[in-house]
Design goal:
The chain has about 110 residues and is an alpha+beta fold. It has one domain. It is built from two helices and four strands. It has a four-stranded mixed beta sheet, with helices on one face. It is globular. The mean pLDDT is about 90.
Length: about 110
Amino acid sequence: MHGKPGRWAWKGVFAVHRRSEGALSSCTGRIYQYTYRLYAPEDSRYERCVGMSWCSVCREASENLVFVSRDTTLADALADLPASERERIGQNSRKIRECLDRLVRRGLWP
């Protein structure tokens, strides 16, 4: 997250709650995960998706390009958003994570 460093700043990491040489973090927060598609079903790259994970407590976040087969239906956690907000968030992973994390902090994450 841009701006002043502080409690709510996100820290990009290779793997949430993992340190070098496999050591675990001292954070006991839950790790949340979400995967979404980047391309339309007719695109040859449809199976290339973004997989993200994050912890709302320590604000660590990780994302990777992941493979999800065409016949797998992904949950759409943004489906209930008004069209204008959904369009604003678009496929910007930072905005998506921030929106999903707000759901987590409000107790609305499935």
